Amino acid sequence: PPLIHLAEYRPSDFLIDRVDLDVRLHPSRTRVTAMLALRPNPAGDPTAPLRLDGDELALVALALDGQPLPEDAYAVSPSGLVLSAPPRRPFTLAIVTELDPGANTKLMGLYRSGAVYCTQCEADGFRRITYFLDRPDVLSVYTTRIEADRDEAPVLLGNGNPVEAGALDGNRHYAVWHDPHPKPAYLFALVGGRLGHVATRFTTMEGRDVAVAVHVEPGKEARAAYALDAVVRSMRWDEEAFGRPYDLDVFNVVAVSDFNMGAMENKGLNIFNDKYVLASPETATDADYAAIEAIIAHEYFHNWSGNRVTCRDWFQLCLKEGLTVFRDQEFSSDMRSRAVHRIAEVRQLRARQFPEDAGPLRHPVRPTAYAEINNFYTATVYEKGAEIVRMLKTLLGPDAFRAGMDRYFAENDGRAATVEDFLDAFASVSGRDLAAFAQWYARPGTPRLAFRTAYDPAARTCDLTLSQSLDGGPPLVMPVALGLVGPGGALDADCPDLADGVYVLTDREATLRFRGVTERPVPSLLRGFSAPVRLDGALTEADHLVLLARDTDPFNRWQAGQSLALRLIRAGGPAEAFAEALGLLLDAEAPRDPAFAALMLSLPGEGEVANEIEAEVDPDAIHGARKALRAALGRALRDRLEDIEARLAEPVGTPYSPDAAAAGRRALRNAALDLLAAGDPQAGAARAAARLEAATNMTDRLAALGTLALIPGDAREAALAAFGARYADEPLVLDKWFALQATIPEPGTPERIEGLKRHPAYALTNPNRVRALVGSFAFGNPTQFTREDGTGFALVADTVAALDGANPQAAARLLTAFGSWRKLKKSRAVKAEEMLNRIKAIPGLSRDVADIVTRTLA
Ligand code: DPP
Ligand code: ZN
Fold it and tell me: What distance in Å separates the CA atoms of residue 423 and residue 437, rounded to the nearest whole number?
């Protein structure tokens, strides 16, 4: 597929100041009349034709300044509409198009999710509604009139504020919405349908009274309460943390069942995958509640970082996404435990972004070329993009960071900005030169940080040498939070190179001298994971044990446990010392911070272990070694785990609360159950079955089922069947059930999945179902996905092929599961390659899938 290059950016030749839309909703023949107020862009080419983007549109009528255009004045092609000789003055264009929302399986543009009409326009879906300058640097003021049948769509929502509504003949009605804030087309949205809602009011710091509502399928209103509360907390937090008030009279969130992404930040009308709105104790886990809180916040925060200040072009996607992920991470950290949340963020980064950065789909946080922008909504743009913002805050300190953010918003409000605009704001408030730092946006790959120490007991000095590398290129600006730790705790040594415990490594190598070091120190590096790098370990097992027990930085205590576990999984050896240290840690932390203790008990995932291996990866060997370590820990810690299980049991009748403290207790108790079962599967199966029976909420029920799912036998099959029957009418719960079965690391799993594909609730047209069943297998079952007989790869490839025609975006995303194929053991890699080549040869492949398959094979 042809590439679009950042270097070839040119301003639009035309601008559109105002858009008046009239949308008459109909299941198969929706009529859209767009009145566009156009003018030549002074920054554009004054001789250029007018090229409007369009995709799968039927043009019904076209008029310029009220006069129908003669047919020789324009040309329509599959990619748009061209006026070869447009006026060189302001003019209006009236465009009538007809759409078939019911047939729109791509879930881009206007489509139907069940009976609800909804839209998704990012990145380029608006061109599937009308012909337009569908690029983020064309900002317009929108007025939208929506008309529909009263019974089919009693609720009509648009961007901005409601200005008018009324009844029409023939059981029809209409609503008019006006959004005073100029915005790019990707932020356009409308919704029409039969929806229930929950609502509240919020008064902003400026005194604006805002009507806030969350709309869901009728009957599910109670499940929207948590999301509504999260909206209000987000609004308050953005005022307090960033001084950002809301700017319309209404804020609506709508949940729909068919959605390609997690959610979308359309101005004043966020549309969500219902997975990230609906929650009840009976149907959602603690993790679901946390995800709802985070994503509600994320989309709300986009109102400033994305909407008020938008992106000049799609290469700048990280400008809104990395920044907004950073903002939602800070929000969640303030709502919950900062240390625990940081660990969760880093696990996510290592599980998703590190492999991407090490494989054929690697790209800079700001890519320089793309064939299909929808393939760049990646962990690198989002998660590593957030890490860059976090590093910036570490470098500048909280006050200069906040001043820079204020400057960024003030200078770029109402503009389509670039990464340079962002960095300029921080450079100007701090007086710092951020040119070298900007390299983080440009250079793909995960840098390595190595170190060595030289301790002189006589002189009481310790020299710490840090060195960095990334593909042999020049050094990056790397904030390294660090300190020295001894067997008795943090060492109070003096080092003039540190500011607030942070050393900023700008050279390839640097040596820091600590004075007053009274005992042999262990360096604690990259505290809080201060930079998204790999730390090459020169620490011994004893050193890690010191950090595990004594570091003052909770992240690095957790990291020490992970490092110890990794060593044992990779190299084997006795686990006694590790188990003993974990035991002592549990004694201290389980009563104090159960969520943290639970994280200490969870070993690095199989994918994370694979990341650490340079040579050919054998997923079976990793799985076996990890399982053996879990079994050893389960046995060694049995008494303590049983004690935790008993002590943390909630008194009968305790009402469920999704708060962080209660969730932490459940997490620890369920982690204890899981390790116990690893140590003694027979007893574990009985214990898990009993817990399943006694569970009063989905968190505990699913955890027990997850433990049981790893133990083959009749008890497991019976429990799975009972769970499936109990939630037969709850698609979001069945997704958990699909996912759980798809990740069973046993040879029978592909066959089980084939069976589940015939389950009445499964549908290839619903992205959540496909992600749950096939996505979980592809991304979460390494031994079976990559198995030597090729059946795992074939299962996923067949789904990609079957899905591509209907929903290329979803198909392409699933295909990225092949991203690490080259690192696999040869016997497996050849099978993956064979399957990729088979996909590549399919005639009529979408641009989305063609792009991924080509890059993955390159
Ligand atoms: N812009 C969306 C987000 O919030 C993605 N569609 O990430
Ligand atoms: Zn976002």
Answer: 9
Q: Which of 166, 189, 212 is the last residue of a domain?
A: 189
Closest to 525 (Cα-Cα) out of 517, 536, 510, 514 = 536
Residue among 121, 186, 256, 261 whose CB has most ligand 1 atoms within 8 A, to mutate:
261
Q: Note the pLDDT of residue 77.
A: 98
753 and 816 in a single domain? The answer is yes
How many domains is the chain partitioned into structurally? 5
Q: Which domain holds residue 808?
A: 727-858
Helices (H), 659-730: 660-679, 681-694, 698-709, 714-726
Residue 317 and residue 136: Cα distance in Å, rounded?
10
Does residue 826 lie in a domain region?
yes
Flag whether 767 is in a domain. yes
Indicate whether 389 belongs to any domain. yes
**CA 119, CA 129: separation in Å to the nearest integer?**
9
Residue 264 Cα to ligand 1 middle (Å): 5
pLDDT tens digits, 544-558: 999 999 999 999 999
List ligand 1's pocket residues with C-beta within 6 A: 122, 261, 263-265, 298-299, 302, 321, 377
- What's the pTM value of the predicted model, to 2 decimals? 0.99
pLDDT over threshold 90, residue 1: no
**Which residue minimizes the CA distance to atom 5 of ligand 1?**
264
**Residue 537 pLDDT > 80, yes or no?**
no
Q: Tell me the per-residue pLDDT of 220-277, one tens digit each, with 9 for 90 and over.
A: 999 999 999 999 999 999 999 999 999 999 999 999 999 999 999 999 999 999 999 9
Residues 526 and 584 in one domain: no
Q: In this structure, is residue 30 part of a structural domain?
A: yes
CA distance 824 to 826: 6
396 with 455, same domain: the answer is no
Residue 568 main-chain phi, psi, to 5 deg: -70, -35
Q: pLDDT tens digit string along 667-706?
A: 999 999 999 999 999 999 999 999 999 999 999 999 999 9
